[in-house]
Write a structure and sequence with these properties.
The complex is a heterodimer of chains A (about 425) and B (about 350). Chain A has about 425 residues and is of the alpha/beta class. Chain A has 14 helices and 16 strands. In chain A, a hairpin with a 2-residue loop joins strand 1 and strand 2. Chain B starts with 7 loop residues before the first strand and ends with a strand. Classes of the chains: A alpha/beta (about 425), B alpha/beta (about 350). At the A-B interface, helix 4, helix 5, helix 6, helix 7 and strand 6 of A face helix 3, helix 4, helix 5, strand 6 and helix 6 of B.
Chain lengths: ~425, ~350
């Protein structure tokens, strides 16, 4: 059985039509537009989290990270764009630009865009109190039309005239990573020559208030994996990866930034908001992704963790890494980059996939900021303090979310 | 997704709709929209509404307090579909069961409730219990939690083809070995803000306001409900004793533009479907575009036009269109396609968007 499985993995990894290449990465983050700005900001250790008062909604006092200044590229397609849409469009533009080729290269591309919020930024409580009156306000109908989360995929597609299969994904905070995993499935099935996959979510009173009501927010900049962690901070942003088969990428001479070697999705089936304390759901997910990639725990050089900074998430995640990487020769290096610009919800998994690729390409392991007294774990090397320079042939991005969803993505720098 | 890939069988059906909670096919009894009483309005307002029922009477032990109706229906429809499929979930590896849920609007009722709590108490006084239940993925999560399904759990949306998209995503998960069984769900619950939007946009059929007005092809009559399919790779399904198959998904394509007829013919690879089941959202222009494309592909073969009640579910109605079409197949009402023929589930969108799934009928 094991031999049969190994042969299956080898066949997939040597079939360039079933090997998924990342040929473009687009990012809109609190550092600005583009992976270069993100990289410059993170490698310099700059934290974008800021104490704010009355910023997102009157009465809110806490810490968030904002994207400053949004100017849409290209022509207005006639759609009304929510902030979620705008972030996604700019990230998609950046991703396509980084992938080479003009817009005709992407005309038949698939689009898998994730969001938890959709157009919630465009509406307010008035819509629930008296919807008819709210819609009669100037622009009311159009604003509400951007509410369904499918709109974010349509906005990207319509803005750039892309007519391949498109679909929106919403799997809580794992959404962006799930979109990338599903893009892998879509490409293997031959449904599109190229797929733009990622996530987008803005800061919004609805979510900030929700997490505040759950008492999940740290009023100060968060400290993921610290024993004294107090909760998460919300940020905003979007990231989009250009994914295509290796055969397709070679045919158009696209530069291969990384290879999506393995991916897995599963569910804890445990609780609406809490992960299993032993982290067994995420551990299983990691194991499945390594099986798909045909690698062992020793092969993974770095894990970009979900690492929200909430007491329950971080202990469950630490336990998951202990279990999934048990038997490794060395503790697994892990960090949470949410300590730089907060938790971007449906965009987080895609942003962290982009950061993982950035780490591989720059041969740099990013530390978790403000990690002074890490959770005790013999199987994990908590990255903190200084940057660590190291070659990274394989790295993982792990994501989890409300409702128990887990996703693990394994990126490789090549096919070795 | 090509004709040479392994096929995926639909082995169970469940639904919660205006017909109530049902396992298996939906009876061929046309229903009229019913009067909305959930919110006050000046004059008659009608829609295809799910009648009240006690979830625990359908699924023993099911607790639904504080859940959005959409989550409740997803739980009930899943249980009914599993029952219809004859699957005893205690006897299967639940880490290998995927849930793929399609919704256009998500949990709108609790989103409205959350907004109202913000209006009443300020943003710093919102309800922590309601918040996580407002996520579009909450219904799929509840299905996994209640049944212990630990495989992939995905929520998708597409303005016109959410149901078809979910079926295709599930098919890929099964074919790529990421799950052994998939529960595919599609649906929405009608909320006041949604109904008002259709009304203010001038999209509603006169039948929404007048019980004497005919309900055919004259505009949109909003609806609600959830349909569920249990899907499994055909060889696995056939290996089980007493396994049923309503149909096998052979191939599928969808796109937001291009040349639909050409792409679908390419997918059909020379086959002409003996039956084309049209989806549609009730807008007369959309229905006529779908029907015209169906005729172009099917020629003189049978074409089933969208059913009014399923149209009311807009992008998530495809599963209901399919279930109703399969009901017709079972009843052999049309009597013009041979046993073992192929059916095309077809939906269209503006700018030549389309979704097409080819199924082999039993």
């Amino acid at each position: 059985m094991v031999e049969f499985f190994t042969i299956g993995v080898l066949l997939r990894l040597t079939d360039t039509r079933k090997t998924i290449a990342v040929t473009g990465v687009g990012v809109v983050s609190p550092y600005g537009i583009g992976l270069e700005r993100l990289q410059a900001g993170m490698l310099s250790g700059t934290c974008c989290l800021k104490r704010t008062k009355d910023d997102v909604y009157p009465g809110f006092e806490g810490t968030t990270a904002r994207v400053q200044g949004l100017a849409l590229p290209g022509e207005d397609s006639g759609f009304r764009y929510s902030r979620t849409d705008q972030l996604a469009i700019m990230a998609a533009h950046d991703a396509m630009a980084s992938s080479g080729g003009d817009i005709s290269t992407f005309r038949e591309s698939g689009i898998l865009m994730a969001s938890t919020l959709g157009g919630l930024t465009e509406i307010d409580a008035g819509i629930a109190k008296d919807p008819a009156a709210w819609y009669r306000r100037p622009g009311g109908l159009a604003r509400a039309a951007s509410y369904p989360f499918a709109h974010v995929a349509d906005a990207v597609g319509e803005h750039f005239g892309i007519r391949g299969p498109r679909c929106a994904i919403s799997v809580a905070c794992a959404s962006g990573a799930v979109a990338i995993a599903l893009a892998g499935n879509m490409l293997i099935e031959g449904m599109a020559p190229i797929t733009l996959a990622g996530g987008s979510d803005p800061l919004c009173p609805f979510t900030l208030s929700g997490f505040n009501s759950l008492q999940a927010l740290d009023p100060e900049p968060c400290s993921p994996f610290d024993q004294n962690r107090k909760g998460l901070n919300l940020g905003e942003g979007s990231a989009v990866l250009v994914l295509e088969t290796l055969a397709g990428a070679r045919a158009r001479n696209a530069k291969v930034l990384a290879v999506l070697r393995g991916w897995a999705m599963n569910n804890d089936a445990f609780h609406s908001t809490a992960p299993q304390t032993d982290g067994s759901g995420l551990a299983d997910c990691i194991r499945l992704s390594m099986e798909m990639a045909g690698v062992s725990g020793d092969d993974i050089g770095y894990v970009n963790a979900h690492g929200t900074g909430t007491p329950l998430n971080d202990i469950a995640e630490a336990n998951a890494y202990e279990t999934a990487f048990r038997g490794r020769n060395q503790p697994i290096p892990v960090s949470s980059t949410k300590s730089y610009f907060g938790h971007c919800l449906g965009a987080a998994g895609a942003l962290e996939a982009a950061i993982t690729i950035m780490a591989m390409r720059s041969r740099t392991l990013l530390p978790t900021l403000r990690l002074t007294t890490p959770i005790e774990s013999s199987g994990v090397e908590w990255l903190r303090g200084q940057l660590k320079r190291q070659s990274l042939p394989l790295a993982m991005s792990a994501s989890s979310g409300f409702g128990g969803s887990n996703t693990a993505l394994i990126f490789g720098s090549g096919l070795s | 997704m090509t004709p040479n890939s392994p096929t995926v069988a639909v082995i169970g059906i469940g639904s919660v709709s205006q017909y109530g909670p049902l396992a298996g096919l939906i009876p061929d009894t046309p229903l009229e929209p019913t009067a909305i009483t959930a919110w006050a309005s000046d004059g008659l307002r009608r829609a295809f509404l799910v009648p009240p029922f006690r979830p625990a009477s359908v699924v023993p032990g099911l607790k639904t307090r504080r859940l959005d109706r959409l989550s409740v229906w997803a739980l009930v429809a899943t249980s009914l579909a599993l029952k219809d499929a004859g699957i005893d979930i205690t006897q299967v590896d639940r880490s290998r069961i995927a849930v793929v849920f399609a919704t256009a609007f998500g949990c709108v009722e609790l989103t409205e409730a959350f907004y109202l709590s913000a209006a009443a108490n300020g943003w710093n006084g919102t309800d922590p219990i309601t918040f996580p239940e407002t996520l579009p993925s909450a219904p799929a999560s509840h299905v996994s939690m209640f049944h212990g399904f630990r495989g992939p759990n995905i929520t998708v949306s597409n303005k016109y083809f959410a149901g078809e998209s979910a079926m295709m995503q599930a098919t890929w998960l099964l074919r790529q070995g990421q799950a052994d069984l998939a529960v595919v769900l599609a649906g929405d619950a009608l909320a006041r803000s949604m109904y008002s939007w259709y009304e203010e946009a001038g999209l509603l059929s006169p039948a929404c306001y007048d019980s004497h007005s005919p309900t055919q092809t004259d505009g949109f009559i909003p609806g609600e409900g959830v349909a569920a399919l249990v899907m499994e790779l055909s060889p696995r399904a056939e290996a089980r004793a007493h396994a049923r198959s309503y149909g096998r998904v052979i191939s599928g394509r969808w796109a937001a533009g291009g040349q639909p007829a050409e792409i679908i013919r390419q997918m059909l690879d020379g086959c002409v479907p003996s039956l084309t089941i049209c989806g549609g959202n009730g807008a007369p222009c959309a229905t006529s575009v779908t029907a015209a494309l169906a005729r172009e592909i099917a020629g003189d073969r049978a074409v089933l036009l969208p059913r009014t009640f399923a149209q009311g579910l807009a992008g998530t109605g495809a599963l209901f269109h399919l279930i109703l079409g399969l009901g017709d197949v079972a009843r052999r009402q049309l009597g013009i396609w041979p046993t073992g023929g192929r059916a095309l589930l077809l939906g269209t969108a503006r700018n030549n968007g389309f979704a097409a799934l080819l199924l082999e009928l039993p």
